[in-house]
Records
---
Amino acid sequence: MPEPLLAVTALDVGYGHVPVVREASLDVSRGEIVTIIGANGAGKSTLLKALAGLVRPTAGRVMLDGHEVTGFAPEKLVRQGLALVPEGRMLFGPMAVSENLALGAHTRRVAAEVAADLERVHTLFPVLAERSEQPAATLSGGEQQMLAIARALMSRPRILLLDEPSLGLAPKVIADIFKVLDALRADGLGILLVEQDANLALKHAQHGHVMRSGRVVMSGTAAELADNDDVRLIYLGAWHGNE
Amino acid sequence: MSSSELLQFLISGLQNGAVYALVGLGFTLVYASTGIINFAQGEFFMLGGMLAVAGVRMGLPLPLSILAAVLLSAGVGVAMERFALRPRRDSGALVLIIITIGASMVLKSLARHIFGPNEMALPAFTPGPPVLLLGAAIDRQVLWIWGLTIVAVVGLTLLYTKTKLGRAMRASSLSHDAARLMGIDTAGVVMISFGLAAALGALGGAAVAPLTQTAFDVGARAGLKGFAAAILGGLGNPIAAVVGGLVLGVLESLSVAFISSTYKDAISLVLLLAVLFLRPQGLLGKSGREKV
Ligand SMILES: Nc1ncnc2c1ncn2[C@@H]1O[C@H](COP(=O)(O)OP(=O)(O)O)[C@@H](O)[C@H]1O
Ligand SMILES: [Mg+2]
């Protein structure tokens, strides 16, 4: 069995002395979307921040493509092929769309490759080409999310971490964005997707994990989770009678 | 007062203002990359002048002395960031600001110890009679001050807008976390900002030393003026700090012309307080820091 692209083993993460994530384990392989679902405050964002290097894990291990990267700084992890689209997007608001994308390519050395990737993200999100010289802060919510994803792609990651890309967006925009995520996955990108909208996440993912109070309490294929009674009841809103 | 006298006051205001602008640019640069006020900034102004004098006394040619003074000061700025501030960077802005105050005291005492307590003079960059303009006399050194300020501002603007480093600096000033996610070494950006800020202050100190003399204790006053210039401009962007410096210099000079030289130094304090109370974003600043 091939080694997973990202292998997280028994990771503990906290802020100061307050533990938030406990013994989280998960794998992401090439060409796979793995989702983490769970209620607000479960620790999903904290886990992603730790994987991207913004918070140091206190225990456990992170392997990226067979190399240990536990506790690496974000600027190092980007160079290893890991990119995070953070909660709240964290765009450079006063700077132009084009500058945000150029910053996404900060670690890249070959101008021709960067130009090719810029063309690619403009093909994926044509609106970014139209808005190229506009400050990022003036974009609509959906456009900002597209820019955040495009900016992350400019580092040419092997694994992309996404924190609630659907939050606050209209269904049409969400559909556009997830179409792109599916295409990226089909191209071989590994995607770790944190979502509150479990319905949406399980429709696009191959594997999923449920987090509760900082722990991964359930794991399985997306189909298994979608069929699980607890998941249906708590996260898929089965009591509303949908599905 | 005749118009040529008025022009003379204006020129002297723009001379001081350009120096305030150089020192003020340093405050702006450090503030942009760290969010803190570096109260040691004035000491780099002092170091620029004193080190240049020391170089000349050691027999170095003047241009080389000035270059060495600016580079050494930049080195001191970098070292201060690396060894005094970075180890405590998680302690919060207040602690860091207090460390800069401590650093300014250390630099001042060291300078007194090394260079002695006396005033010192640096030779004019290009000696010669003043240049006459519309009946007013402009000292050649003043032309140097203006020229160097323009070069510094243009250089800084090009750095900010046209280079990858400048883009990384702007990104870091908006959000360190977001910048690090792009792969930017934000610690390096902070260190470069301190070095550049120190170099600009030192350049101001060396450029004005032939006109005013210099001493180990000139840093505090220069720091206050530069700080006022930066606040007047809103701490936001380099151009604003330059405008702030020039406005401050001219206002001081006009107060000497029309009121009394007694109040010259009070002007910057009054302006500082007025801006902080009435328009904290500065004369040219937009309201609030821009962040997404
Ligand atoms: N910067 C922080 N400092 C301290 N505690 C935090 C911080 N960020 C999040 N937390 C806490 O960690 C817990 C998990 O938060 P988070 O990871 O954002 O959850 P989720 O993304 O699943 O909603 C929450 O109790 C939250 O209050
Ligand atoms: Mg979250």
---
Amino acid sequence: MALFNLKINGKTYKADVDANTPLLWVLRDHLDLVGTKYGCGMAMCGACTVHVNGEATRSCVVPVSNVSNATITTVEGLSETGTHPVQEAWDEVDVPQCGYCQAGQMMTASALLAKNANPSDKEIEEAMVGNICRCGTYHRIHDAVKLAAAKMKK
Amino acid sequence: MSTNQSRRDFFKTSATAAGGLVLGFGWFSSEAFEPGVLTKAAADTIDFNAYLAIAPSGIITIYSPNPEIGQGIKTAFPIIVAEELDADWSKVKVEQSPLDTKKFERQLTGGSGAIRHSWERLRKAGATARVMLMEAAAKKWSVPLSECSTSKGFVMHSSGKKLSYGELATDAAQITPPTTVKLKDKSNFTLIGTSVKGVDSKAILTGKNLFGIDYKREGMLNAMIQRPPAFGLKLKSFDATEAKKMPGITDVVSFGNKVAIVGKTTWEVMQARKAVKIEWEKEKDLESSADHDRIFKEMLNSTTATVHRKDGDIEAAFKNAYKVIEAEYQCPFLPHSPMEPMNFFAHFKGDSIEMAGPSQTPQNAQNQIAKMFNIAPEKVTIELTRMGGGFGRRLNTDYAVEAAELSSIIKAPVKVTWSREDDTAGGIYRPAVRYRFKASIDKAGNITGYMLHGAGMNAGNATRPDNFPVGAIENTLIQSNDHKSPITTGPWRAPITNFLAYAEQAFLDEVAMAGGKDPIQLRMELLEKAQKSPVGKLTYEPERFREVIKLAADKAGWGKKKKGVYQGFSVYFSHASYVAQIAEMANVKGKPVLKKVYAAVDCGIVINESSAQNQVYGAIVDGLGHAMYGNLTFKDGAPQQDNFNKYRLIRYNEVPDIEVHFVKNGIDPTGLGEPALPPTGGAIANAIFKTTGKRLYNQPFSEQGATLG
Ligand code: FES
Ligand code: FES
């Protein structure tokens, strides 16, 4: 066990956990940040995506010891009230069906848009291909990324 | 339209301590009472299972009993009530009711039946509350009721006076509910048919703890369960000495054929699980996919099939045929792969148990758990969480029952979470099925005989005996065989038809070709025949069938030459809805590449346009993805794919353009969660044939050269 001071969503969280524990389970089991979802545990589905120093990262395969000094953002930190342009776009396009994958989808999309304000369809595809939506909301995800990009330009 | 309230629609009101109106109504009440005049005593015994509450603040709360799985029910139900109530939608709140079998009869998600089941009663509830509010206003103003009207949460008088529903609610609670109510003319709907955003959207998009897997209680332990790694194995022995010493682990116990590892956190449990040494032994046959291929052949050649339907004389039809066409189609087992793996919380308390989690059939779970502990069903309470998909998997209660059993053994509140590997390899699968078709045609290409023989792996009856084109052909035979396999199977979104539709629709194309007919022309002729002179029982409406076919053909420009575009057609009737699809492909260096899917849907009145579109897109993507990639194979009883690295799901870059059109016919709403899935595989297979000249007889298509994206 080791004590970590994690910088998440602008706050510092203490976690006393084994150094190998994936960030995903620290968030979910220790810090009550359950917006980040478990889907596969092997970086295949994207449900667990968070930002680590601004990069979209699969938290299910990142040991907590690797991010002890990093700046971490989870879906709860996009904005608590749903006012981040990506959240707004997701709401306006009415993307979710079951909703389980959508935190991961939004984290991937928001990391992309933070770096590339005007992504091409190809660039959106390259970013989003790692996030599975079993309900098949891909068309709306595409529309929502486009809408979020437009919102961020304003 | 004016309808009499029968006893089952009896309404009862009360005012809450805080004032306002609470209207209870029999959403799903059973007809336990004999018809007749309702006495006061009888009225008191009726359970008012659904509630519509109007607070003095004007906030309207509707308690929605059906579990939400992504099908949009939690939004659709209140839309229906709010429409008849003339409520201001921005003031309507929806709450999920816990399982209450006394109050809710059909509290399950499955069979695309929720809206069909409750449409009329929800409308009456809204209309009843509206009349009571109007009466309260009329009384207050001392004006005749006929001078009052409603709009967007207000009762208005012809003089221009108005009062909000909130202001009237407490008075309305004193009004006796009317015995007859007039429902709106459907052409006056202002909310139904518009696009309304999902009521949980905000919570989903800000990462709130909505799902079962997010569930947490003070003092709750976490557990994972090692189940037999192959179907047909059972537990022989286990040694948990090492595992029990590992950090965070509180217990390792076995029950049934399982070993449960219990601890403080999920990750610690996952680690300790690897340290448990388990020996398994053979209990039943350990089947491999190659065995299944052999067993299919045996079944299809057997002479002891169960006959489900027989019209005319099939043998004579084949004997006198101008041509006989035969083909066999096969599909593999499929796991459901909902994004949220199975999980359930349980807290056993000796004479009662508290449960929480995602279930499509909470009532079954309640009954089974009550039986296991020999307690009354009321002693099993189940809090229903949102479900991260289900696709039929959560119609089974295995994961809830085992959580209950574990809690009773360790005497602690515990949440059991399945890993993705557990979820994929410990499934209740879509059964593998093989179909043999045989059809005879006359010189003009008309079908004179039609035989379908289904062979399934734990599929029960793998056929649907009344499916089109049955009913349009003089001589038919529908029969099946089933193999009892140790591999567990169950409903998978659009059970049986999820594959049968593909096989039927692809075979019909083969028959059309053999008879020199256009695929749509053949179907239209058959439907005309079914309408004019049906053979035997007819379970579909040929006219509605033809309408969706025409709509799809029109939108996709069927038969109009588009350069480099190859079209495949398919149409299907299931869950009381009709869906026609046309897939368009291009030939890219000899490979068929899917470009677009058109869908024409007749599900009667669309409640929520946005959600309905989402459902149809999703069902097409689902049908497409599984037809292309879905394949669960077995070796000695063990599933060979257990996570998304080996089991492929369709991704963002692989979906074609989709265009959805709804038939506007004003018919009462029918199913929508499933009906758009079955036709997809057939439309694609038929388009692949047009593109390459190659007929695909087996799923998944990707293993036969088809690609997407
Ligand atoms: S849970 Fe991390 S990628 Fe699937
Ligand atoms: S919305 Fe259900 S998995 Fe994406």
